[in-house]
Write a structure and sequence with these properties.
790 residues; single chain; elongated; three-stranded antiparallel beta sheet; 52% helix; mainly alpha; 10 strands
Length: 790
C-alpha cells in the first residue's frame, strides 16, 4: 500500500527528484520485493540490512576494505613450510619475518629502509624486536568507505581479489539494501556508517550513483542496458544457487570478517557470475521483448536504437539530428568494459596476465611517475641532508623561494607527487609501512607542510618513503605475474640508485593502451540487429606483454632516498655509549641557569647544540678524560675554534667532558622552548597524535600548583628527553601505552638511568595526567613556568 500511495519516506517519487534517483528507487523497490518474498539463506544478510538494520550494528558490511597486512601475515603463517613464521619489526617499524625456530641467526638489511635486522646466535640486534601478530587485524566493522567522491581514486578500487564486475554489483546490492533500511530505520543505519553522517539516505544515494557509474563502465553498456542488467541480477537472487549452497546455521549477521568474505564470494560466484556469462544474450532477449511490445514498437527512436531500418524523411531537412548516426548506439570501448569481457571468458584462468593487469590497471598506470618522484626525493635529500633544522615552510612557500629554473623543476615534480599520492594514499596507508592516521587521511596540496615531501623514517616524511616503496611494489607485482605466465624467472634487477625511465613500466591509457585494444576489436553489422563487437583477447594479452612489460627489470629498494638529519640519529645509544666511556655528572644549578640566560636566540642554541652533538659523536667512539675542559676539547682535539661562536665557547667555560650528556639534554630542551615561544612552531610535530591530547582545565590547575612548589628543571629536562628519544617512533605506542601515567612512566625511565626522581615530583605532580597528554603537559609547564617567573 505504501508503494501504491507513494508513502515510502525518503524513497518517495516526486517531480523535483532527478531521474537518476528515480532509477535507484525503482531498483530498491525491486530488491525490497525480492527480500520480502525470498526464502534462500543467501538473502539473509541483505534482508537484515534492508528490513532489520538494528541487527547489523556490529556487522562486517560486504565489500568494505580490510587490513591487507594482517591478511598477508595470516596467509604466510598458514602456508606450507611457513607454519613457524615469527614476525619482527625493524628499528623503524617495518615488518620482517623469521622462519624455522623463530629466532634470528644471521644479519640482513630491511628491504624498506636498509636498517640492520636479524641477529646472531638466536639473539636479535638492537631495535629488531618480535611483534608476532600483536599488531592485530585492523579491519573495521560497519560501512567505512567514507566520501563517495574518493571512490574514483585507484586506492579505493581494491576488489579484494574478486573480479571487478561481480564485486561492484555486490557493493551495489549492499548499498540498495542499506538504502531500503535507511528509509524505514534511519537511526539504525546511521550507526552503521563510519564516520557518522547526518543524512544516511542522501549519503547512500551518492554511493549508489557512484556504483551505477562503475557498473555502467564495467559492463560497457548504456544507462538502460545497465539498469536492465541490474534488474536481471536482482531477479536471479531468488533462484537457488546450483553449487555451493549457503550452509544452514551460517553467520547471518556477518559478525566476523570470514563470514563476510564467504558471503561475498558465494554471491559473486554462484549468483552474479553465471548471470554475467550470458548477460549479452539475456539483454538481447529483453530488448527484443521491448521492441516487440505493441506499446513501444511503433516508436521511431526505439526502432532506430535497436537496429531497425527506418526512413529519416520525417525529420526536418538541415536538422542536426537528420542523421542515422545520432540515433544508433554502439557499445563504448573502455578498460572497464574490457575487464568485464575478460571475466565473461573465464579470463582469471585462461588469460591470467591480462586479468591481473586489468584488475589494478588504475594503479599500474601510475608506476610511470616513479622516476620523477625518485628524482624529486633525491634532490630534496641532497638539499636538506646537511641542514641543522628542517624547513617548516609549506610546499608553496618552498617553491616560491626557488630561483626561476629550479621553480619550474620543483613545481612539475611536486605536482606529480601530489597527484600520485592523492590517488594512492589509501593503498599506501594499508601497505607494509605503518603511517599514522593523521598523516594520510587528507589529500595533500601546495598548502601542505613541506615535510610530507621529505623522505624520512618518521613523521610526515613517512608518506614520501611509503609512496615510493608502493610504486616499486606495483612494478614488481606485475613483473612477477609475467614470470608466472611465461614460466621464467626475471634475473634482471636494478636498484633505485640506478633507475632510469627505461626501466619502469610506462604507458599512457589514451595514447598507448586503448589504441592497442581497438586494433584487436572486430565489429559485425547485420541489418535490423545491433552492432556486435568481438575482441581478440589472447592477442591483447600478448601485445600488453611485449609492448609494456617484457624486458623490464625487477626494482630493488637499495639506494632508496632517506633524509637522515642529526635529529634522526640514535642518541639513546650514543648517550649510553658516552656514559660508558666518560663518567658523566649533572650540571650545577648555577651553570644551568647561566647557560639558559646566555644562549637567548634560537640560532645560538642551534649552533651550540650542533657543536655538542658533534662532540658526543666523537666521544662515543674515542672516549676522553672526564675532567678535560670542554672548550679545550672543542678547540684542540676537534679543531672547531673557527666554526664555533666565541660567545658559546665563553658560556661553556665552566664545563668539562663529564657534563656533555647534561649539556645535550639542556640544549635540546632550550631549542624546543625557543621553537615554541619565539617561532610559534611545534617542536613535536613528528610525535604521534596519540600523545598530543589536550589537558582538562582541572589538570591545568593541578599543574600550576606543582610548578609553584619548587625546582622542576630536572623533571622538565627528563620529560623532554623521554619525548625526544622514545615517542618519535611510528610504533611508539607498541612500547609506551598512551593510557599509562606520565608520573609512573617517567619515574621508571629515570630509575633505569639511575637518576633520582625529585621529591617535589613524588609529592605534587598530578597522578591523573596520562602519557597521551605528555606533549601538552610539557608545553603548558614550560609556558606557565616562564609566565610565573616574570
Amino acid at each position: 500500500m505504501a508503494l501504491v500511495q507513494n508513502r515510502m519516506g525518503e524513497l518517495n517519487v516526486h517531480n523535483g527528484r532527478p531521474g537518476a534517483e528515480h532509477v535507484l528507487i525503482e531498483l530498491t523497490v525491486h530488491l525490497a520485493a525480492v527480500l520480502l518474498t525470498g526464502t534462500e539463506g543467501v538473502l539473509t544478510p541483505l534482508q537484515q540490512l534492508g528490513l532489520t538494520p538494528n541487527n547489523m550494528q556490529r556487522a562486517f558490511i560486504p565489500t568494505m576494505p580490510e587490513d591487507m597486512l594482517a591478511m598477508a601475515q595470516r596467509v604466510l603463517t598458514q602456508t606450507g613450510g611457513l607454519q613457524a613464521l615469527t614476525w619482527y619489526s625493524c628499528p623503524e617499524g617495518h615488518p620482517c619475518a623469521v622462519g624455522e625456530c623463530g629466532r634470528p641467526t644471521q644479519l640482513a638489511r630491511c628491504l624498506e629502509c636498509g636498517a640492520v635486522v636479524g641477529g646472531k646466535n638466536h639473539a636479535p640486534v638492537r631495535g629488531f624486536s618480535a611483534m608476532g601478530l600483536q599488531r592485530g587485524d585492523l579491519t573495521r566493522t560497519g560501512h567505512i568507505l567514507g566520501d563517495p567522491q574518493r571512490r574514483d581514486n585507484p586506492d579505493s578500487q581494491d576488489t579484494k581479489n574478486m573480479s571487478l564486475t561481480p564485486f561492484t554489483l555486490v557493493r551495489l546490492l549492499t548499498h540498495l539494501a542499506m538504502l531500503l533500511g535507511a528509509s524505514e530505520h534511519p537511526q539504525s543505519v546511521q550507526q552503521i556508517i563510519q564516520p557518522p553522517v547526518a543524512d544516511p539516505c542522501g549519503f547512500l544515494i551518492l554511493h549508489l550513483l557512484k556504483d551505477m557509474d562503475h557498473v555502467t563502465k564495467a559492463l560497457g553498456k548504456g544507462t538502460d542496458g545497465t539498469v536492465t542488467a541490474i534488474h536481471l541480477i536482482i531477479r536471479s537472487i531468488l533462484e537457488s544457487p546450483q553449487t555451493n549452497p549457503w550452509m544452514a546455521g551460517y553467520d547471518s549477521q556477518l559478525s566476523t570478517k570470514e563470514a563476510r568474505n564467504t558471503w561475498e564470494t558465494t554471491v559473486a560466484t554462484d549468483i552474479i557470475t553465471p548471470q554475467l556469462k550470458h548477460l549479452d544474450q539475456r539483454l538481447r532477449e529483453v530488448n527484443a521483448t521491448i521492441r516487440n511490445d505493441s506499446r513501444v514498437s511503433s516508436n521511431f527512436i526505439m526502432r532506430v536504437t535497436f537496429g531497425d531500418e527506418c526512413p529519416l524523411s520525417s525529420l526536418p531537412r538541415g536538422s542536426q539530428v537528420h542523421c542515422s548516426g545520432v540515433w544508433s548506439y554502439r557499445e563504448r570501448v573502455s578498460l572497464l568494459s574490457l575487464t568485464h569481457i575478460v571475466e565473461q571468458n573465464d579470463g582469471k584462468d585462461k588469460l591470467p596476465l591480462l586479468w591481473r593487469f586489468l584488475q589494478k590497471e588504475a594503479e599500474f598506470r601510475l608506476v610511470r611517475f616513479l622516476p620523477d618522484i625518485l628524482a624529486l626525493q633525491k634532490s630534496l635529500v641532497k638539499r636538506f641532508q646537511r641542514s641543522s633544522d628542517l624547513m617548516n615552510d609549506s610546499i608553496r612557500e618552498f617553491i616560491q623561494k626557488q630561483s626561476a629554473p629550479m621553480r619550474v623543476y620543483y613545481e612539475k615534480r611536486i605536482q606529480i607527487f601530489l597527484n600520485t599520492w592523492n590517488l594512492l594514499r589509501l593503498s599506501v596507508a594499508t601497505s607494509e609501512i605503518k603511517i599514522p592516521d593523521e598523516f594520510w587521511k587528507e589529500n595533500l596540496d601546495q598548502d601542505s607542510d613541506l615535510q610530507y615531501l621529505l623522505p624520512r623514517r618518521q613523521g610526515p616524511g613517512l608518506c614520501s618513503t611509503a609512496l615510493l616503496s608502493h610504486l616499486v611494489a606495483l612494478h614488481n607485482e606485475l613483473l612477477h605475474a609475467v614470470d608466472r605466465h611465461t614460466g621464467e624467472d626475471t634475473s634482471y634487477k636494478v636498484s633505485l640508485s640506478e633507475l632510469t625511465d627505461l626501466h619502469v613500466i610506462r604507458y599512457e591509457v589514451e595514447k598507448d593502451l586503448l589504441p592497442l585494444v581497438l586494433s584487436n576489436c572486430q565489429y559485425s553489422l547485420e541489418r535490423g540487429k545491433e552492432t556486435l563487437s568481438e575482441y581478440d583477447l589472447p592477442k591483447i594479452q600478448q601485445q600488453v606483454l611485449t609492448r609494456f612489460l617484457q624486458g623490464k627489470p625487477l626494482i630493488t629498494l637499495t639506494g632508496i632516498p632517506i633524509l637522515v638529519t642529526r635529529h634522526d640519529r640514535d642518541y639513546e645509544s650514543i648517550l649510553k655509549t658516552v656514559k660508558g666511556k666518560v663518567s658523566q655528572e649533572r650540571l650545577p644549578s648555577l651553570t644551568l641557569t647561566a647557560l639558559s640566560r646566555d644562549l637567548e636566540s634560537y640560532s645560538e642554541v642551534c649552533d651550540a647544540l650542533k657543536a655538542m652533538e658533534l662532540a658526543l659523536g666523537f666521544l662515543s667512539m674515542t672516549g676522553g678524560d672526564t675532567h678535560m675542559p670542554l672548550v679545550r676539547y672543542l678547540e684542540d682535539t676537534l679543531r672547531m675554534s673557527e666554526q664555533t661562536e666565541p660567545h658559546f665557547l665563553k658560556a661553556l667555560g665552566r664545563c668539562s667532558l663529564k657534563h656533555c650528556v647534561a649539556l645535550w639534554q639542556l640544549l635540546s630542551s632550550l631549542k624546543s622552548e625557543n621553537m615554541l615561544k619565539s617561532l610559534k612552531r611545534d617542536p613535536f610535530s613528528g610525535v604521534s597524535a596519540e600523545y598530543q591530547k589536550h589537558l582538562e582545565e582541572e589538570q591545568k590547575k593541578l599543574l600550576q600548583g606543582f610548578i609553584t612548589v619548587g625546582n622542576i628543571n630536572t623533571w622538565l629536562l627528563e620529560m623532554h628527553e623521554f619525548l625526544l628519544l622514545n615517542l618519535g617512533s611510528p610504533r611508539a605506542s607498541d612500547t609506551y601505552g598512551p593510557h599509562w601515567s606520565v608520573k609512573e612512566t617517567l619515574a621508571a625511565y629515570m630509575d633505569r638511568k639511575e637518576v633520582q626522581v625529585p621529591p617535589d615530583v613524588e609529592a605534587s605532580f598530578p597522578d591523573e595526567i596520562l602519557l597521551s597528554q605528555i606533549v601538552e603537559t610539557w608545553k603548558f609547564t614550560v609556558t606557565y613556568k616562564q609566565e610565573w617567573m616574570m
